[in-house]
Amino acid sequence: MAKEKTTLPPTGAGLMRFFDEDTRAIKITPKGAVALTLILIIFEIILHVVGPRIFG
């Protein structure tokens, strides 16, 4: 007699797949996020040092 084959459910059944969604948000690479963070940190340090002289 032949064995009956049982099929398993597909993996991730019922879970949302994020890469399938179409979003209109700004897409930024990880390198861009790190660069933007470093720019903001440097800008804040400059304001902390020079700011009291400018703004009193």
How would you sum up the global shape?
rod-shaped
Unreliable stretches covering 5 or more consecutive residues: none
Query: Mean pLDDT score, rounded?
Result: 80
Number of helices: 1
Distance between the termini: 92 Å
Largest sheet: none
Structural class from helices and strands? mainly alpha
- Number of distinct beta strands: 0
User: How large, in whole angstroms, is the Cα Rg?
Assistant: 26 Å
Estimate what percentage of residues fall within beta strands: under 5%
- Helix-strand sequence: H
The percent of residues in helical segments reads: 40-55%
Subcellular location: Cell membrane
Extracellular side: 50-56
GO cellular component, one term: plasma membrane
Family: Belongs to the SEC61-beta family.
Structure description:
The protein is built from one helix and no strands. With 56 residues, the protein is an all-alpha fold. It has a domain at 28-55. The longest helix has 26 residues, at 30-55.
Key features?
56 residues, 46% helix, 0% strand, translocation, Preprotein translocase subunit SecG
Short description:
This protein has one helix at 30-55.
Task: Please render the helix and strand layout as text.
Layout: H1 30-55
